[in-house]
Amino acid sequence: MASTPAPTTADSAAPQARSVLRDPAFLRLWAGTTASGLATWALPFVLGLAVLHRDLGAGGLGLVLAARTVGFLLAVAIGGVLADRHSRRSVVLWSGLAAAAAAPLLAAGLGRSLALMTAAAALAGAGQGACRPAFQALTAETVDPARRQQANAAMTLAVRSSTLAGPALTALLAAWLDTATLLLGIGVLWLVAALVPGRGTAAPASPADADADPDAGPAAPRAGFRAEFLEGLREARRHPWFLAGLGALVAVVALGYSATSVALPLISRDRYGTEWVLAAATTAYTLGALAGALVIARMRPRAQGWAALAGLAAYGAAPLSLVLPVHPLVIVAAYAVAGIGIELFNVPWFTATQREVAPDKLARVSSLDFLVSYGLAPVGLALIAPAIGGFGTAPVLAVCAAACFLVPAAAALVPTSRHFARTAPSAAD
Fold it and tell me: How far is it, in rounded angstroms, from Cα 335 to Cα 314?
């Protein structure tokens, strides 16, 4: 920094960047993203109520949720290409409207047609999948780089808060409204997600477009869908920290999260003889995630990538706490630590992706993130239960805990992982 005194000019006296919570454009985007997250969370819960009311069987519930997952995975890659090819705002609009249209179809099929409900769930999943990478890219268009970490923290705070308060709210509404009406309410949430966000600061479709000569004649025809998707993969390969972090995330989700999802209910019932441990641990995880989001909204570690990967590795505390017959409060505390750690990873991860990836390829790279992490999660869930049956709960949990600790540690050794950047940040950053 220069040693001369700072002049008392308008430039040097510029106020600190305004909080994103006072930015109308961001608040509209935040409201839409929050509505989509709440609608995504609410659907399985409301369908569970349909099972309780005998409007849907257990097998039908599994089929409907599987169809939603398939729709999500198919659409997330397509949505990433579309969001880089066209207006991100338009992709959010049409994907939100598609998910909203699925809600009355689900209500119409309830107790009448499982085939209609399955098709509608696939449509809802497609809308959810297509909007996720578009929302990520639209955040980068709406919020300037200096405030994106705060913005991403605000997004995750909203999602975690809805996860915490949602069950009680839905249960309260269920006392007054039937399941079909609750499904229509999910459609209203998707309408909010589709209609409320505003337009971003429309970035050029590609760096070349920004420098194009307006008199150079018509632009060359765009590449096909497959070529553009592969272009997004090549962009991801340019960032070793991204591939390493994605691998660590997949290990934690497919092994750690899957193992605890299967084992915690069993251990709560068989070891402790109460559902209290299950409820307390999952609540502690959400409260920990809220605390982690609040911390990372302000914290700027010098080695951002290493700190984020350490937070991701902290999830290993959850399966590790289930290995031995410890006091239930130890499990609750371990889940709180896991929740804190997951947001210490998530927020810098999203922020770094928005900062480092080429703007015209951001949605495609984000779609790869969602496609791999979400896509392999069901595989982990499918394998963990047979593994527990074959090898026992404790050995499987121990292996999964070790993977949660070791894979992020290995990812930290990859070049560029220290800062989640291809070059180290400057002192000004």
Answer: 9
E strand intervals along 259-363? none
Reported as half-sphere exposure (CB side, CA atoms, 13 A), residue 293 has a value of 21
Give the DSSP H or E segment for 281. helix 276-298
What is the spatial distance between Cα 4 and Cα 178, in angstroms, rounded to a whole number? Answer: 70
What predicted TM-score, i.e. pTM, was given to this entire model?
0.82
Give the pair of three-digit tokens for residue 181. 């009406």
Mention every residue, 6+ apart, whose C-beta is less than 8 A from residue 405.
313, 316
Residue 389: pLDDT above 50? yes
Identity at 49, one-letter amino acid code: L
Output the pLDDT for position 404: 96
Rounded to whole angstroms, how far apart are CA atoms 232 and 138?
17
Q: How far is CA 99 from CA 46, 49, 105, 306, 383, in A?
A: 15, 20, 10, 37, 30
| Residue 359 neighbours by CB under 8 Å, 6+ apart | 137, 140, 141, 203, 204
Using CA atoms of 53, 58, 64, 66 in order, give the dihedral in degrees to the nearest 10.
150
Return d(Cα 319, Cα 88) in angstroms, integer.
39
Residue range 34-45, pLDDT digits in tens: 899 888 888 888
Residue 356 and residue 354: Cα distance in Å, rounded? Answer: 6
Quick count: other Cβ atoms within 10 Å of Cβ 171?
A: 11
In the block, residue with structure tokens 């560029």: 416
Chain-centroid distance, C-alpha 424: 26
pLDDT at residue 118 tops 70: yes
Are 235 and 358 within 8 A, CB to CB?
Answer: yes
pLDDT band at 217 (very low <50, low <70, confident <90, very high): very low
Helices (H), 175-253: 179-195, 207-210, 225-237, 240-251
Whether 295 shows a pLDDT value over 90: the answer reads yes
Among 332, 20, 307, which residue's Cα sits nearest to residue 149? 20
